[in-house]
């Protein structure tokens, strides 16, 4: 019996990915989370990080935020900013880091935002 | 009876108008394909979002503690109406249909002696509404310079609405837009976005209990504002497709009408030409006879 389940990554504009996978690792709000077949139904948030889709090959996406629903062996990721890792170029990466660092240096941001931005910077830096 | 010269001029002018409408129709057809694709691709996101929220609401036990965006303020004194229209004209009844629907609603709201606030998006709707309801308009948006509306624009409007909501500026928010059904049919629609109106779909088979991380309330707090932007974005996409569809049909009709008109004018022209020739002949013959 196949150990695969379906995954969909949807943005407001279009469906980015619809395929089957063996395992998916998502950067959930409270930590990385690996999802296998027959996971219990769950709804959770994403923080900035990588979505890893593991089937015959490995595909990685960078996301900043999003919401995840797993139900009936169907993983649904709604996010407005997924970027496939192999398609990010160095210069846009740099500007993203700078932008995030500028934001974090402001004093007016809340703890929650700070937490998220820290993750964003760390993740972006780890791409290199 | 117009002179031959006048007729000739009119035929020429109608023909050039026909050329313009024909070109506009082609442009609209090309744009329509893209807009339609976008609208169809954008549908799953908003649908799934609604679904998740539906699942979340099911698991909320204490409605009095639920986020205000979901359950509303409990009042319905002030209505905020967001009217989405196009920035360009020449698209048949597209803009007027939305405005007609919106105006009917405005009238009802006012007759129930409730407060009315209006936000317009797109300049054509503004023009139509400000004549009668100008004093109720609190904000106007226009994205004329944008070639294609992206999620960012929807987000700007969404955030603005949420801001107003937290400032207790209104109790209920309605969205007016055209729903794209197919090229010929676009249905003007009003959708309530605050408090969130969750349309429960027939397939409520998943009575599974979800695990939430973090808990339901926190997820809802974050998700509901996003949902508003998403719904607005969906409305944008539907509207864009409807606009092009509507324009295409309107321009197609205009082209055909221009063709009919040219035919009619040409017949007229030929008749008058023949009449003047006949008249001249009669004159010559009767002149020759009298000699």
Give an account of the 3D structure:
The complex is a heterodimer of chains A (128) and B (291). Chain A is an alpha+beta fold. Chain A has two domains: 5-84, F0F1 ATP synthase delta/epsilon subunit, N-terminal (ATP Synthase, domain 1), CATH 2.60.15; 88-127, no CATH class. Chain A has two helices and ten strands. Chain A has helices at residues 90-105, 111-127; strands at 5-10, 15-21, 23-28, 31-35, 42-46, 49-54, 58-63, 66-71, 74-78, 83-84. Chain A has a five-stranded mixed beta sheet with strand order 2-1-9-8-5, with no helix packed on it. A five-stranded antiparallel beta sheet of chain A has the order 4-3-6-7-10. In chain A, a hairpin with a 2-residue loop joins strand 3 and strand 4 (31-35). Chain A is globular. The mean pLDDT of chain A is 83. With 291 residues, chain B is an alpha/beta fold. Chain B folds into two domains: 4-21 and 251-290, Helix Hairpins, CATH 1.10.287; 30-249, 3-Layer(aba) Sandwich (Pyruvate Kinase, Chain: A, domain 1). Chain B has six helices and six strands; from the N terminus they run ααβαβαβαβββα. In chain B, a hairpin with a 5-residue loop joins strand 4 and strand 5 (186-194). In chain B, helix 3 (94-111) packs parallel to helix 4 (123-133). Chain B is elongated, with a radius of gyration of 28 Å. In chain B, 34% of the residues are buried. The chains are: A alpha+beta (128), B alpha/beta (291). Chains A and B meet through strand 5 and strand 8 of A and helix 1, strand 6 and helix 6 of B.
